[in-house]
Amino acid sequence: MDGFKRIVVGVDGSPASKAALAWAVRHAEERVARVTAVSVCQVHPVPSDASPPLGTGPDAFRGMHERLLREAVAGAGPEAEGVEQLVPTGGPGPVLVELSKDADILVLGGHGYHRAGLEVVGSVAAYCLRRAHCPVVIVPVGGKDDDNADGARLSRTAQEFR
């Protein structure tokens, strides 16, 4: 991962995405890389003959995503002060894949483990794993405190892929 200069990280407010952001900030600091935190605002269309409920229009959703992203970046500590924050509109998977074109690595949170012990990724992570233009790191839930979740194994895998 020594050559990585731009890290894009998906943030949706979940504990997994906050762990992914912390991982990205930590690894960016070590490598003097730039982090772009992204919270994709997916606005669902309202039928033309209906009015959206008060406070649920596109501007309200965008504001919610901007607030969520600000709080997540602030929660990542003082090291995250220079993190670029983007709130694009669209489908999370396609938007993150598009942003991966200009990234050296895409970082996403994992959802945890299935009863059978298999690691489970969500639909957005699965979409990005199949289509991203750069290596993808999935940070497991609880990765911050987990002895095996410092990202070293994941980083090696991403580097080998590259």
From TrEMBL:
InterPro entries: Rossmann-like_a/b/a_fold (IPR014729), Universal_stress_UspA (IPR006015), UspA (IPR006016). Residues 4-140 form the UspA domain. It comes from the Bacteria. PANTHER family: STRESS RESPONSE PROTEIN NHAX (PTHR46268), UNIVERSAL STRESS PROTEIN UP12 (PTHR46268:SF6). Belongs to the universal stress protein A family. This is Nucleotide-binding universal stress UspA family protein. It comes from Saccharothrix ecbatanensis.
